Amino acid sequence: MTEAIRIAIAGATGRMGKTLIEAVLNHPACTLAGAFDIAGSPALGRDAGDFMGIHTGVIITDQVEQALANAQVMIDFTRPAGTLEHLNVCKRLGVKAVIGTTGFEGEQMDAVKAASQSVSMVWSPNMAVGVNATFKLLEVAAKILSQGYDIEVIEAHHSKKVDAPSGTALRMGEVIAKSLNVNLKDVGVFAREGITGEREAGTIGFSTIRGGDIVGDHTVLFAGIGERIEITHKSSSRMTYAQGSIRAAQYLMDKATGLYDMQDVLGLSQFKV
Ligand SMILES: NC(=O)C1=CN([C@@H]2O[C@H](COP(=O)(O)OP(=O)(O)OC[C@H]3O[C@@H](n4cnc5c(N)ncnc54)[C@H](OP(=O)(O)O)[C@@H]3O)[C@@H](O)[C@H]2O)C=CC1
Ligand SMILES: O=C(O)C1=N[C@H](C(=O)O)C[C@H](O)C1
Fold this sequence. Notes:
The active site is at 157 (proton donor/acceptor), 161 (proton donor). The protein is an alpha/beta fold.
């Protein structure tokens, strides 16, 4: 019998942290090896399963080294600065990493890539299988609708989300831009206000909605003359992200250092359009 994968969860008391703990505890091929959160978190010192009414024997700590000491994989859905600190510890301890954090800015993303030279890592702005399938659909749609259609990415999330546009919306824009042989940096329009002038052909617009408890909705609109095509994905549970993260952890078990994506995990990278 193969041994269960020992997983430690960063941001253990966050929305995703709790969902990940539940997913790991319920997964037959995984075991919870550590749980940690930011210093000052009121949950420090509590059992990681407290919120589910379960005793796990894993105590939430702010000592990252301690939490990762017995882990094979860290799963991290926190904030860019925290993730970068945690990756340094993974590097020292030889722990693999599944990173779901979004909102990295230029140099921070470079630091993630640099860390992957010594850490075996999956980073994806969205771990859901359906979203990763949608990326492929967008690659095809963008090729077919490359002339005569205005492209807009619209995303909606809960009121507590701190980054915009979502990492997924940005990735959708990148996938479409690549399919059209352009650079998102050159064609992305991220804000409109006042007398904006007419829409410039060839641009990709982004709109952000924040409210209530929306888990995560993404629509790409291809607006033509006399018709519109919309490709939409809606998440109704964070468990899809957690299940995807566990698939990513399993994928990493026999992988050397390097940066992998959910497209690699799901075997979609070879799926050429
Ligand atoms: N890739 C994917 O599939 C998905 C990605 N995400 C991304 O995951 C991230 C977390 O989302 P969510 O769980 O909703 O957020 P939460 O705010 O609910 O959770 C974040 C957790 O990280 C902690 N934290 C905050 N800052 C730091 C830091 N500097 N160092 C270490 N820990 C920190 C928070 O502590 P405290 O509460 O005390 O601040 C909290 O426990 C976001 O970037 C989000 O976009 C979310 C869902 C899916
Ligand atoms: O913060 C969230 O909640 C989510 N963040 C990710 C993103 O920024 O794309 C993924 C998902 O949409 C939920």
